[in-house]
Design brief:
Blueprint: E1 13-15, E2 21-28, E3 35-40, E4 49-54, E5 59-61
Antiparallel strand pairs: 1-5, 2-3, 3-4
């Protein structure tokens, strides 16, 4: 799979259509078809992080 985006663990990323707060690249899925993104899912009420997996074509680098 040479068409995989090149992300390193901890790189700030963002979904193209969903608003993810404090999102960072975590890892590729075991199958290699999805990108794991660690994000704060209880924002603005506190800090609770979880990793969700998304299609790689919907994940872009965050410009921040």
């Amino acid at each position: 799979m040479t068409d995989k985006p090149d992300f390193k663990k901890g790189d700030p990323v963002q979904h193209k259509t969903k608003k993810l707060h404090e999102a960072q690249f975590e890892k590729w899925s075991k199958s290699g078809k999805r990108i794991g993104v660690n994000h704060n899912f209880v924002w603005p009420y506190g800090a609770g992080y979880k990793t969700d997996y998304f299609d790689p074509k919907n994940i872009v680098r965050d410009s921040k």
